[in-house]
Amino acid sequence: MGDRRRPRPRRHRPGRPRPRTLARRPGRGEDRVPHHRPGHQGPHRRGRGAVHSADRRRAQPLDPDGRRDRGARRRTAVHRGRRVTTALAEAAPPRGGTRLQFAAVSLGALALLLASIGAAITLGPADVSLMNVRDILLNHLAGAEIPVRVSKEAIVWQDRLPRALVAAACGAGLGLCGLVLQSLLRNPLADPYVLGISSGASSGAVVVAILGVGTAGFGVPGGAFVGSLVSFAAVLLIARLAGGGDDKLILAGIAVTQMFSALTSFVIFAFADSDATRGVMFWLLGSLEGVRWNGAALCGIAALAGTVLCLARAHVLDAFAFGDEVAASLGVHVRRERAVLIAAAALLTAVMVSIAGAIGFVGLVLPHAARYLAGPLHLRLVPVTALVGAVFMVWVDALSRVAFSPSPLPIGVSTALVGVPVFIAIMFHRRRTL
Protein backbone atom coordinates (compact mmCIF):
# COMPACT_ATOMS: atom_id res chain seq x y z
CA MET A 1 0.00 0.00 0.00
CA GLY A 2 1.29 3.47 -0.82
CA ASP A 3 1.93 6.08 1.75
CA ARG A 4 -1.07 8.13 2.49
CA ARG A 5 -0.31 11.69 3.25
CA ARG A 6 -2.25 13.29 6.01
CA PRO A 7 -4.35 16.15 4.60
CA ARG A 8 -2.97 19.50 5.49
CA PRO A 9 -5.24 21.57 7.76
CA ARG A 10 -6.96 24.35 5.96
CA ARG A 11 -5.65 27.68 7.14
CA HIS A 12 -7.98 30.58 7.80
CA ARG A 13 -7.88 33.18 5.09
CA PRO A 14 -8.45 36.83 5.98
CA GLY A 15 -11.84 38.08 4.88
CA ARG A 16 -13.51 34.63 5.08
CA PRO A 17 -15.76 33.61 7.97
CA ARG A 18 -14.10 31.44 10.59
CA PRO A 19 -15.99 28.24 11.48
CA ARG A 20 -17.62 28.04 14.86
CA THR A 21 -16.29 25.55 17.36
CA LEU A 22 -18.70 23.06 18.83
CA ALA A 23 -18.51 22.54 22.57
CA ARG A 24 -20.04 19.67 24.52
CA ARG A 25 -22.36 20.59 27.34
CA PRO A 26 -21.61 18.73 30.54
CA GLY A 27 -24.21 16.14 31.30
CA ARG A 28 -26.11 16.45 28.03
CA GLY A 29 -24.52 13.61 26.07
CA GLU A 30 -24.36 14.31 22.38
CA ASP A 31 -26.22 17.61 22.65
CA ARG A 32 -23.92 20.20 21.17
CA VAL A 33 -24.34 23.94 21.25
CA PRO A 34 -22.47 26.49 19.18
CA HIS A 35 -19.79 28.45 20.94
CA HIS A 36 -19.67 32.06 19.66
CA ARG A 37 -16.59 34.17 19.75
CA PRO A 38 -16.52 37.94 19.11
CA GLY A 39 -15.95 38.81 15.49
CA HIS A 40 -16.66 35.26 14.19
CA GLN A 41 -19.58 34.19 12.09
CA GLY A 42 -21.41 30.95 11.50
CA PRO A 43 -20.18 27.54 10.28
CA HIS A 44 -19.47 26.64 6.66
CA ARG A 45 -22.15 25.02 4.61
CA ARG A 46 -21.74 23.12 1.34
CA GLY A 47 -18.37 24.37 0.32
CA ARG A 48 -16.21 27.33 0.93
CA GLY A 49 -17.67 30.66 1.91
CA ALA A 50 -21.14 29.30 2.67
CA VAL A 51 -22.43 30.98 5.79
CA HIS A 52 -25.33 30.03 7.99
CA SER A 53 -28.52 31.84 7.00
CA ALA A 54 -28.97 33.31 10.47
CA ASP A 55 -25.44 34.69 10.37
CA ARG A 56 -26.09 36.11 6.91
CA ARG A 57 -29.10 37.97 8.24
CA ARG A 58 -27.11 39.24 11.19
CA ALA A 59 -24.35 40.45 8.88
CA GLN A 60 -26.75 42.65 6.92
CA PRO A 61 -27.08 46.20 8.30
CA LEU A 62 -30.45 47.04 9.80
CA ASP A 63 -32.39 49.93 8.38
CA PRO A 64 -33.64 52.74 10.68
CA ASP A 65 -37.09 51.15 10.98
CA GLY A 66 -35.62 47.81 12.12
CA ARG A 67 -36.71 46.04 8.93
CA ARG A 68 -34.40 43.57 7.16
CA ASP A 69 -36.03 44.23 3.84
CA ARG A 70 -34.82 47.43 2.28
CA GLY A 71 -38.06 47.87 0.41
CA ALA A 72 -39.88 48.33 3.72
CA ARG A 73 -37.95 51.47 4.64
CA ARG A 74 -40.38 53.82 2.99
CA ARG A 75 -43.63 53.84 4.89
CA THR A 76 -46.74 55.76 4.31
CA ALA A 77 -47.47 58.88 6.30
CA VAL A 78 -50.28 57.09 8.11
CA HIS A 79 -48.02 54.38 9.51
CA ARG A 80 -45.31 56.86 10.43
CA GLY A 81 -47.89 59.04 12.10
CA ARG A 82 -49.17 56.12 14.17
CA ARG A 83 -45.68 55.25 15.35
CA VAL A 84 -44.84 58.83 16.24
CA THR A 85 -48.16 59.46 17.93
CA THR A 86 -47.85 56.27 19.99
CA ALA A 87 -44.33 57.14 21.08
CA LEU A 88 -45.29 60.67 22.05
CA ALA A 89 -48.39 59.51 23.89
CA GLU A 90 -46.29 57.07 25.92
CA ALA A 91 -43.77 59.80 26.71
CA ALA A 92 -46.38 62.37 27.78
CA PRO A 93 -50.05 61.34 27.89
CA PRO A 94 -52.34 64.00 26.43
CA ARG A 95 -54.61 66.06 28.61
CA GLY A 96 -57.34 66.16 26.01
CA GLY A 97 -59.15 63.04 27.25
CA THR A 98 -61.04 60.78 24.90
CA ARG A 99 -61.93 61.61 21.32
CA LEU A 100 -65.49 62.40 22.32
CA GLN A 101 -64.31 64.83 24.98
CA PHE A 102 -61.88 66.44 22.56
CA ALA A 103 -64.64 66.84 19.96
CA ALA A 104 -66.86 68.43 22.59
CA VAL A 105 -64.10 70.83 23.62
CA SER A 106 -63.41 71.77 19.99
CA LEU A 107 -67.07 72.42 19.24
CA GLY A 108 -67.35 74.45 22.43
CA ALA A 109 -64.33 76.55 21.45
CA LEU A 110 -65.80 77.11 17.99
CA ALA A 111 -69.10 78.22 19.51
CA LEU A 112 -67.18 80.52 21.87
CA LEU A 113 -65.39 82.04 18.89
CA LEU A 114 -68.65 82.77 17.07
CA ALA A 115 -70.16 84.24 20.22
CA SER A 116 -67.05 86.36 20.78
CA ILE A 117 -67.22 87.77 17.26
CA GLY A 118 -70.90 88.61 17.73
CA ALA A 119 -70.24 90.29 21.07
CA ALA A 120 -67.23 92.21 19.73
CA ILE A 121 -69.35 93.67 16.93
CA THR A 122 -71.72 95.22 19.47
CA LEU A 123 -68.90 96.95 21.41
CA GLY A 124 -67.90 100.45 20.41
CA PRO A 125 -68.94 104.11 20.57
CA ALA A 126 -72.05 103.52 18.43
CA ASP A 127 -74.86 101.56 20.06
CA VAL A 128 -75.48 98.33 18.11
CA SER A 129 -77.47 95.46 19.60
CA LEU A 130 -77.28 91.74 18.89
CA MET A 131 -80.67 91.97 17.17
CA ASN A 132 -79.28 94.58 14.79
CA VAL A 133 -76.29 92.34 14.07
CA ARG A 134 -78.61 89.41 13.36
CA ASP A 135 -80.80 91.44 11.02
CA ILE A 136 -77.82 92.86 9.12
CA LEU A 137 -76.26 89.43 8.66
CA LEU A 138 -79.55 87.99 7.43
CA ASN A 139 -79.93 90.83 4.94
CA HIS A 140 -76.46 90.29 3.44
CA LEU A 141 -76.11 86.53 3.73
CA ALA A 142 -79.64 85.19 3.35
CA GLY A 143 -81.14 87.87 1.10
CA ALA A 144 -83.66 89.03 3.69
CA GLU A 145 -85.15 92.52 3.60
CA ILE A 146 -85.33 93.42 7.28
CA PRO A 147 -85.43 97.21 7.77
CA VAL A 148 -82.23 98.43 9.48
CA ARG A 149 -80.80 101.92 9.82
CA VAL A 150 -78.23 102.66 7.14
CA SER A 151 -75.69 104.01 9.63
CA LYS A 152 -75.79 100.86 11.75
CA GLU A 153 -75.58 98.65 8.69
CA ALA A 154 -72.47 100.51 7.51
CA ILE A 155 -70.86 100.28 10.95
CA VAL A 156 -71.45 96.54 11.27
CA TRP A 157 -70.89 95.34 7.71
CA GLN A 158 -68.13 97.69 6.58
CA ASP A 159 -66.17 98.23 9.80
CA ARG A 160 -66.70 95.99 12.81
CA LEU A 161 -67.35 92.61 11.16
CA PRO A 162 -64.27 92.71 8.87
CA ARG A 163 -62.19 93.92 11.80
CA ALA A 164 -63.35 91.07 14.05
CA LEU A 165 -62.68 88.51 11.31
CA VAL A 166 -59.18 89.89 10.69
CA ALA A 167 -58.48 89.76 14.43
CA ALA A 168 -59.60 86.12 14.59
CA ALA A 169 -57.55 85.16 11.53
CA CYS A 170 -54.45 86.94 12.83
CA GLY A 171 -54.72 85.26 16.21
CA ALA A 172 -55.10 81.83 14.65
CA GLY A 173 -52.32 82.36 12.10
CA LEU A 174 -49.76 83.84 14.48
CA GLY A 175 -50.51 81.18 17.08
CA LEU A 176 -49.91 78.42 14.53
CA CYS A 177 -46.66 80.06 13.42
CA GLY A 178 -45.42 80.11 16.99
CA LEU A 179 -46.44 76.48 17.49
CA VAL A 180 -44.58 75.35 14.37
CA LEU A 181 -41.40 77.24 15.25
CA GLN A 182 -41.40 76.02 18.84
CA SER A 183 -41.78 72.42 17.67
CA LEU A 184 -39.12 72.66 14.96
CA LEU A 185 -36.55 74.57 17.00
CA ARG A 186 -37.45 72.78 20.26
CA ASN A 187 -37.37 76.15 21.99
CA PRO A 188 -40.35 77.23 24.13
CA LEU A 189 -39.40 80.89 23.68
CA ALA A 190 -39.48 80.85 19.87
CA ASP A 191 -42.10 82.86 18.00
CA PRO A 192 -42.52 84.22 14.44
CA TYR A 193 -40.40 87.28 15.19
CA VAL A 194 -37.34 85.14 15.86
CA LEU A 195 -36.85 84.93 12.09
CA GLY A 196 -36.87 88.69 11.58
CA ILE A 197 -40.10 88.66 9.60
CA SER A 198 -41.75 91.43 11.62
CA SER A 199 -38.84 93.83 11.21
CA GLY A 200 -38.74 93.17 7.47
CA ALA A 201 -42.46 93.85 7.15
CA SER A 202 -42.07 97.08 9.10
CA SER A 203 -39.26 98.26 6.84
CA GLY A 204 -41.26 97.47 3.70
CA ALA A 205 -44.29 99.35 4.98
CA VAL A 206 -42.22 102.38 5.97
CA VAL A 207 -40.45 102.54 2.60
CA VAL A 208 -43.79 102.44 0.74
CA ALA A 209 -45.58 104.90 3.03
CA ILE A 210 -42.82 107.50 3.32
CA LEU A 211 -40.73 107.22 0.18
CA GLY A 212 -43.65 106.33 -2.09
CA VAL A 213 -41.88 103.35 -3.64
CA GLY A 214 -44.40 101.05 -5.31
CA THR A 215 -47.49 102.83 -3.97
CA ALA A 216 -49.35 102.46 -7.27
CA GLY A 217 -49.03 98.69 -7.33
CA PHE A 218 -48.61 97.53 -3.75
CA GLY A 219 -49.55 100.01 -1.05
CA VAL A 220 -48.50 99.61 2.58
CA PRO A 221 -49.67 95.97 2.93
CA GLY A 222 -47.88 95.00 -0.26
CA GLY A 223 -44.68 96.67 0.85
CA ALA A 224 -44.89 94.89 4.20
CA PHE A 225 -45.36 91.56 2.46
CA VAL A 226 -42.36 92.07 0.18
CA GLY A 227 -40.23 93.20 3.12
CA SER A 228 -41.18 90.07 5.06
CA LEU A 229 -40.09 87.82 2.21
CA VAL A 230 -36.80 89.70 1.79
CA SER A 231 -35.98 89.47 5.50
CA PHE A 232 -36.80 85.77 5.60
CA ALA A 233 -34.61 85.09 2.57
CA ALA A 234 -31.77 87.00 4.25
CA VAL A 235 -32.16 84.90 7.41
CA LEU A 236 -32.00 81.65 5.44
CA LEU A 237 -28.98 82.81 3.44
CA ILE A 238 -27.01 83.94 6.50
CA ALA A 239 -27.85 80.77 8.42
CA ARG A 240 -26.79 78.58 5.50
CA LEU A 241 -23.51 80.43 5.00
CA ALA A 242 -22.81 80.13 8.74
CA GLY A 243 -23.11 76.34 8.62
CA GLY A 244 -26.80 75.72 9.20
CA GLY A 245 -28.50 74.49 12.34
CA ASP A 246 -31.20 75.82 14.65
CA ASP A 247 -28.81 77.98 16.66
CA LYS A 248 -27.49 79.62 13.51
CA LEU A 249 -31.06 80.25 12.33
CA ILE A 250 -31.95 82.04 15.58
CA LEU A 251 -28.76 84.12 15.55
CA ALA A 252 -29.35 85.05 11.91
CA GLY A 253 -32.90 86.11 12.80
CA ILE A 254 -31.62 88.37 15.58
CA ALA A 255 -29.06 89.96 13.26
CA VAL A 256 -31.59 90.56 10.48
CA THR A 257 -34.08 92.00 12.99
CA GLN A 258 -31.57 94.58 14.18
CA MET A 259 -30.57 95.44 10.63
CA PHE A 260 -34.12 96.09 9.42
CA SER A 261 -35.02 97.94 12.62
CA ALA A 262 -32.13 100.31 12.00
CA LEU A 263 -33.28 100.76 8.39
CA THR A 264 -36.81 101.59 9.54
CA SER A 265 -35.60 104.19 12.04
CA PHE A 266 -33.31 105.77 9.44
CA VAL A 267 -36.10 106.15 6.86
CA ILE A 268 -38.51 107.63 9.43
CA PHE A 269 -36.12 110.22 10.85
CA ALA A 270 -34.49 111.13 7.54
CA PHE A 271 -37.45 111.43 5.16
CA ALA A 272 -40.75 111.53 7.09
CA ASP A 273 -42.72 114.57 8.19
CA SER A 274 -44.74 114.74 11.38
CA ASP A 275 -48.02 113.43 9.97
CA ALA A 276 -46.43 110.50 8.14
CA THR A 277 -44.35 109.62 11.19
CA ARG A 278 -47.44 109.46 13.38
CA GLY A 279 -49.31 107.19 10.98
CA VAL A 280 -46.39 104.84 10.41
CA MET A 281 -45.56 104.55 14.11
CA PHE A 282 -49.20 103.74 14.88
CA TRP A 283 -49.17 101.00 12.24
CA LEU A 284 -45.86 99.59 13.50
CA LEU A 285 -47.43 99.05 16.93
CA GLY A 286 -50.15 96.90 15.38
CA SER A 287 -53.46 98.29 14.26
CA LEU A 288 -56.68 96.96 12.76
CA GLU A 289 -58.02 100.39 11.89
CA GLY A 290 -59.38 100.65 8.38
CA VAL A 291 -59.32 96.95 7.46
CA ARG A 292 -61.91 95.95 4.87
CA TRP A 293 -63.24 92.78 3.30
CA ASN A 294 -60.27 92.26 0.99
CA GLY A 295 -57.93 92.14 3.99
CA ALA A 296 -60.33 89.86 5.85
CA ALA A 297 -60.49 87.47 2.89
CA LEU A 298 -56.70 87.36 2.53
CA CYS A 299 -56.11 86.73 6.24
CA GLY A 300 -58.88 84.13 6.41
CA ILE A 301 -57.59 82.15 3.43
CA ALA A 302 -54.03 82.24 4.79
CA ALA A 303 -55.10 81.11 8.27
CA LEU A 304 -57.24 78.29 6.86
CA ALA A 305 -54.43 77.09 4.59
CA GLY A 306 -51.97 77.17 7.48
CA THR A 307 -54.32 75.14 9.67
CA VAL A 308 -54.80 72.49 6.98
CA LEU A 309 -51.04 72.24 6.40
CA CYS A 310 -50.30 71.88 10.11
CA LEU A 311 -52.95 69.17 10.48
CA ALA A 312 -51.50 67.30 7.49
CA ARG A 313 -48.01 67.53 9.06
CA ALA A 314 -49.10 66.79 12.63
CA HIS A 315 -47.15 63.50 12.77
CA VAL A 316 -44.05 65.31 11.47
CA LEU A 317 -44.32 67.93 14.23
CA ASP A 318 -44.71 65.11 16.77
CA ALA A 319 -41.52 63.51 15.47
CA PHE A 320 -39.57 66.77 15.69
CA ALA A 321 -40.49 66.94 19.37
CA PHE A 322 -37.98 64.10 19.96
CA GLY A 323 -35.19 65.70 17.91
CA ASP A 324 -33.91 65.45 14.37
CA GLU A 325 -32.20 62.07 14.81
CA VAL A 326 -35.30 60.39 16.19
CA ALA A 327 -37.44 62.02 13.50
CA ALA A 328 -35.11 60.67 10.80
CA SER A 329 -35.21 57.18 12.32
CA LEU A 330 -39.00 57.32 12.21
CA GLY A 331 -38.93 57.91 8.47
CA VAL A 332 -39.28 61.72 8.35
CA HIS A 333 -37.33 63.58 5.68
CA VAL A 334 -35.89 66.10 8.13
CA ARG A 335 -34.42 68.68 5.77
CA ARG A 336 -37.39 68.79 3.40
CA GLU A 337 -40.07 68.89 6.09
CA ARG A 338 -38.20 71.53 8.07
CA ALA A 339 -37.85 73.76 5.00
CA VAL A 340 -41.53 73.41 4.08
CA LEU A 341 -42.79 74.18 7.59
CA ILE A 342 -40.47 77.14 8.19
CA ALA A 343 -41.34 78.63 4.79
CA ALA A 344 -45.06 78.21 5.51
CA ALA A 345 -44.67 79.90 8.91
CA ALA A 346 -42.78 82.79 7.34
CA LEU A 347 -45.36 83.32 4.58
CA LEU A 348 -48.26 83.13 7.03
CA THR A 349 -46.62 85.66 9.33
CA ALA A 350 -45.92 87.96 6.38
CA VAL A 351 -49.59 87.95 5.36
CA MET A 352 -50.78 88.72 8.89
CA VAL A 353 -48.23 91.47 9.49
CA SER A 354 -48.93 93.07 6.11
CA ILE A 355 -52.60 93.52 7.06
CA ALA A 356 -52.56 94.08 10.83
CA GLY A 357 -49.07 95.45 11.48
CA ALA A 358 -46.48 94.19 13.94
CA ILE A 359 -48.34 92.24 16.64
CA GLY A 360 -45.98 90.63 19.11
CA PHE A 361 -46.13 87.85 21.72
CA VAL A 362 -49.17 86.11 20.22
CA GLY A 363 -47.09 83.30 18.76
CA LEU A 364 -45.18 82.99 22.02
CA VAL A 365 -48.02 82.82 24.55
CA LEU A 366 -50.86 80.99 22.81
CA PRO A 367 -49.11 77.67 22.01
CA HIS A 368 -48.28 77.24 25.70
CA ALA A 369 -51.87 77.98 26.71
CA ALA A 370 -53.12 75.47 24.14
CA ARG A 371 -50.76 72.76 25.45
CA TYR A 372 -52.38 73.00 28.88
CA LEU A 373 -55.75 72.32 27.25
CA ALA A 374 -54.92 69.72 24.58
CA GLY A 375 -51.62 68.11 25.56
CA PRO A 376 -48.56 67.55 23.35
CA LEU A 377 -50.12 65.72 20.38
CA HIS A 378 -50.21 68.12 17.43
CA LEU A 379 -53.28 66.52 15.87
CA ARG A 380 -55.20 67.97 18.82
CA LEU A 381 -52.89 70.88 19.53
CA VAL A 382 -53.20 72.53 16.10
CA PRO A 383 -56.98 73.18 16.10
CA VAL A 384 -56.96 74.18 19.77
CA THR A 385 -54.14 76.67 19.15
CA ALA A 386 -56.00 78.21 16.21
CA LEU A 387 -59.26 78.55 18.16
CA VAL A 388 -57.61 79.91 21.31
CA GLY A 389 -55.62 82.41 19.26
CA ALA A 390 -58.70 83.59 17.42
CA VAL A 391 -60.73 84.09 20.61
CA PHE A 392 -57.81 85.85 22.31
CA MET A 393 -57.26 88.35 19.51
CA VAL A 394 -60.97 89.13 19.10
CA TRP A 395 -61.30 90.10 22.75
CA VAL A 396 -57.99 91.98 22.88
CA ASP A 397 -59.05 94.08 19.90
CA ALA A 398 -62.51 94.71 21.35
CA LEU A 399 -61.13 95.81 24.72
CA SER A 400 -58.54 98.02 23.01
CA ARG A 401 -61.33 99.82 21.15
CA VAL A 402 -63.61 100.23 24.15
CA ALA A 403 -61.18 101.02 26.96
CA PHE A 404 -59.46 103.90 25.16
CA SER A 405 -62.32 105.28 23.06
CA PRO A 406 -62.42 107.41 20.95
CA SER A 407 -58.68 106.85 20.26
CA PRO A 408 -58.18 103.07 20.30
CA LEU A 409 -55.03 101.58 21.78
CA PRO A 410 -52.78 99.81 19.23
CA ILE A 411 -53.41 96.11 19.46
CA GLY A 412 -49.68 95.37 19.58
CA VAL A 413 -49.45 97.29 22.86
CA SER A 414 -52.27 95.23 24.38
CA THR A 415 -50.74 91.91 23.35
CA ALA A 416 -47.36 93.03 24.74
CA LEU A 417 -48.95 93.89 28.09
CA VAL A 418 -50.22 90.32 28.28
CA GLY A 419 -47.25 88.61 26.65
CA VAL A 420 -44.37 90.12 28.64
CA PRO A 421 -45.43 88.65 32.03
CA VAL A 422 -46.04 85.27 30.43
CA PHE A 423 -42.64 85.47 28.70
CA ILE A 424 -40.92 86.09 32.05
CA ALA A 425 -42.89 83.26 33.70
CA ILE A 426 -41.81 80.83 30.96
CA MET A 427 -38.17 81.82 31.44
CA PHE A 428 -38.30 81.20 35.19
CA HIS A 429 -40.18 77.93 34.74
CA ARG A 430 -37.58 76.74 32.22
CA ARG A 431 -34.80 77.69 34.65
CA ARG A 432 -36.35 75.56 37.41
CA THR A 433 -36.77 72.56 35.12
CA LEU A 434 -33.16 72.60 33.86
- Fill in the CATH topology: ABC transporter involved in vitamin B12 uptake, BtuC
Number of strands: 2
Mind telling me the C-alpha Rg? 31 Å
Q: What is the mean predicted local confidence, pLDDT?
A: 76
Structural class designation:
mainly alpha
Number of domains: 1
Spatial strand sequence of the major β-sheet: 1-2
Region (Disordered): 1-84
Keywords: Cell membrane, Membrane, Transmembrane, Transmembrane helix, Transport
GO biological process, one term: siderophore-iron import into cell
Transmembrane segments: 102-123, 161-181, 193-218, 224-242, 249-271, 291-312, 339-365, 377-396, 408-428
Characterise the protein shown here.
- By secondary structure, the chain is mainly α.
- The chain has a single domain, classed as ABC transporter involved in vitamin B12 uptake, BtuC (Orthogonal Bundle), CATH 1.10.3470.10.
- Helix content is 66%, strand content 2%.
- It contains 16 helices and 2 strands.
- It has helices spanning 53-59, 77-91, 99-122, 130-141, 150-185, 197-211, 219-241, 246-271, 274-284, 293-312, 314-320, 324-329, 334-356, 362-374, 378-403, 411-433, and strands spanning 21-24, 32-35.
- It has a two-stranded antiparallel sheet with strand order 1-2.
- The longest helix is centred in the middle third of the chain and has 36 residues, at 150-185.
- The N and C termini lie far apart (87 Å).
Quick overview of this protein structure:
The protein is an all-alpha fold and 434 residues long. The protein is 66% helix and 2% strand.
Q: What descriptors fit this protein?
A:
single chain; 434 residues; mainly alpha; ABC transporter involved in vitamin B12 uptake, BtuC; two-stranded antiparallel sheet; 16 helices; 2 strands; globular; transmembrane helix; transport; Iron chelate uptake ABC transporter family permease subunit; transmembrane; cell membrane
